[in-house]
Design a protein that fits this description.
Blueprint: H1 3-7, E1 8-11, E2 14-16, E3 20-27, E4 40-46, E5 62-66, E6 74-79, E7 84-92, E8 95-105, E9 113-118, H2 132-141, E10 146-148, H3 156-164, E11 173-175, E12 177-180, E13 189-192, H4 203-206, H5 220-231, H6 242-257, E14 261-264, E15 270-271, E16 273-274, H7 278-287, E17 292-296, H8 302-317, E18 324-326, E19 342-348, H9 353-361, E20 365-369, E21 376-378, H10 381-393, H11 395-413, H12 419-426, H13 429-437
Parallel strand pairs: 2-8, 9-10, 10-11, 14-17, 17-18
Antiparallel strand pairs: 1-3, 3-6, 4-5, 4-7, 7-8, 9-19, 12-13, 13-14, 15-16, 19-20, 20-21
Length: 440
């Protein structure tokens, strides 16, 4: 966390464009206190208007003389005129004291809060290492707002995770999900938030899952016949594998029927060689069967995330526009270099399944690469700028609160006395923090 965030609280941090907003700067401890009755020089410096010396005709410097109020806080009002970051600089007797930041957003982002999460990870119920409820607690401790257990062939582990916390108030949103694997299909697809299991539609997988509905599971032969007939209804180029494409087409449509988000996963994963041929990937991108593309996934070698990111930006240049997400594809939530390798920030009115899915489909998401110490963001330039600000100025404070809830969640499922009472005591703090920092 930046030193400034330890010494001063500034709120709200995010304000609407074009409206006069009152900003409060609160010292955190007497060592950072403003001198009683002393005059200070405050300036507001927009990040994207250039320096006053080089661009004198732009709106790039606004200066005020001010002093602290009787409660020790400093307040000022300002009309933040364009969507961007603004530096708030405070001087004492012409000596630099502190620089803080706020961000103004246009109307469409007002009412949308940043929620950090993961849409693709595994537990011990398939090939992961920890129980679903423990995975939940460990990821909450590290700052996640939402996620889904998406075990191979299995939907029920995500329901098990939800069930584990049904009797305690938590602000961590556990979403149902699964990684879909049908016979003879090599493409990896995640059903995020679907109201029933797709794996449960096939006899081979139905024994490993709970469908969330009543289905007469298909045999392998029935599945194969279904897709072969389905392929005849599609116009598939001769150089594209007809069964594979038709199966993907059918699966993504079925996920939509289940009101889920169909995610096209890690196409540049190297499993001996590329998981699926790049020519097939390109045709999937061209036809855009999926709801969201996993542009960042769970491997730390360059070829996977690097190639997937280039694919996304080249597709954008070609006019192919589709939503993106980042996921860890984690198989262990502790002592694992890849356990926090990627994530997604979704700008959503609520941290709720339907709202998150709708927001991703409406292009309000950014993928975050945390392979290296310095995070890298993938998405539209506008949202990436905003995400960079949040990563430095909001999420460190947000993550502190998440850690406490995650620790109590783990204690609760492990039977530690008093854990339920702790969760009840701290419930609602995330909501209070959002209302403080986002002036919507």
């Amino acid at each position: 966390m930046k030193t400034e965030l330890h010494y001063y609280d500034i709120f709200p941090k995010v304000i609407p464009v074009g409206k006069e907003s009152e900003i409060t700067v609160k010292p955190l401890g007497w060592h950072a206190a403003f001198k009683n009755g002393a005059a200070y020089h405050l300036s507001v410096c927009p990040l994207e208007e250039g320096t006053p010396r080089e661009f004198p005709n732009r709106r790039n410097l606004f200066e005020f003389d001010t002093k602290a109020d009787t409660d020790g806080c400093m307040r000022f009002k300002f009309n933040f005129f364009a969507e961007q970051q603004y530096f708030i600089r405070i001087k004492d007797d012409d000596k630099f004291k502190i620089q803080l930041s706020v961000y103004a957003v246009d109307e469409d982002l007002c009412g949308r809060y940043p929620f950090k999460g993961d849409l693709h990870m595994h537990s011990r119920r398939s090939d992961g290492k920890e129980a679903p409820a423990i995975v939940c607690a460990n990821y909450r401790k590290t700052g996640y707002d939402f996620f889904a257990i998406t075990d191979h062939h299995r939907y029920y582990p995500s329901l098990e995770a939800i069930e584990a916390y049904k009797n305690v108030p938590i602000e961590f949103n556990i979403v149902p999900g699964e990684e879909v694997h049908f016979p003879e299909v090599r493409t990896h697809i995640v059903n995020f938030g679907g109201e029933y299991s797709l794996n449960g539609l096939i006899e081979e997988s139905a024994q490993n899952t709970e469908t969330g509905g009543n289905y007469n599971a298909m045999t392998k032969e029935q599945w194969s016949n279904l897709i072969n007939e389905y392929a005849k209804t599609l116009d598939i180029p001769k150089d594209i594998e007809a069964f594979e494409f038709a199966a993907c087409h059918w699966i993504f449509n079925e996920i939509r029927k289940a009101n889920g988000l169909g995610i096209f996963c890690h196409p540049y994963w190297i499993s001996n060689v590329f998981q699926i041929p790049p020519a097939f990937v390109d045709y999937i991108m061209q036809t855009q069967l999926f709801d969201a593309y996993e542009v960042l996934g769970g491997e730390n070698y360059y070829e996977q995330n690097g190639f997937q990111t280039i694919q996304y930006y080249e597709d954008t240049a070609k006019g192919r526009n589709y939503p993106i997400i980042g996921s860890t594809d984690s198989h262990s939530s502790i002592n694992n270099r890849n356990s926090h390798i990627c994530s997604t920030i979704v700008f959503s009115p609520e941290n709720e399944r339907k709202s998150l899915i709708a927001s991703i489909k409406d292009f309000y998401s950014v993928a975050v690469d945390t392979i290296s110490a310095e995070p890298r963001f993938v998405g539209s330039l506008r949202l990436v700028k905003y995400a960079c600000f949040l990563d430095q100025e909001f999420f460190p404070l947000h993550d502190d609160i998440c850690y406490e809830e995650g620790r109590a969640m783990k204690d609760y499922v492990c039977g530690v006395s008093g854990a339920k009472e702790v969760l009840e005591l701290i419930s609602g703090r995330m909501k209070t923090q959002r209302e403080k920092y986002f002036a919507f």
